[in-house]
Amino acid sequence: MYRDRAGGVVIRAEHVQRWISLASSGRRDEILLRAGRILDGGTTAPARAETVVPLGAGTGELATACRRLLAETAAAAPPAPAAPGRTERSEKPKRPGRKGKRMSLASWTVLACVVGVVALYAYSAATTGAG
Q: What is the pTM assigned to this prediction?
């Protein structure tokens, strides 16, 4: 997690080759969420998806917006190249008995960081706007 040049917060998820950022949208009660890919050299590609979320939105709405943006970014990404010398027969078989997708610990950590940053931004905006 780091701040970009414009003052927004960027969270990099190297394990899934994606990034998401939260920044001021230019309006008082909104934040701009953007998501994109991390390229092979570690540099970030331009945003592939973005949306504006009201500051008054709950954590559930914010989390839904983040998941949607990351899903759109993943859907727009070209498939990863197969490892040389691997054929379909050498692929691991799928694990039986697993129903649906589950979020990994890293996904929960990224989500918690996003929610924390938004809460901190909202608190900061509320305290500086009150005075």
A: 0.53
CA dist., res. 17 & res. 90, Å (int)? 24
Coil/strand/helix, residue 66: helix
Domain count, the chain: 1
- Structural domain that includes position 12: 2-78+113-130
Q: Is residue 19 part of a domain?
A: yes
Using alpha carbons only, how large is the chain's radius of gyration in Å?
18
* Parts of the chain with a pLDDT under 70: 76-103, 129-131
User: Which DSSP category does 131 fall into?
Assistant: -
**Residue found by looking up tokens 């939105």 in the block:** 57
Number of H-type helices and E-type strands within the chain? 2, 5
- Residue 17 falls within a domain, yes or no? yes
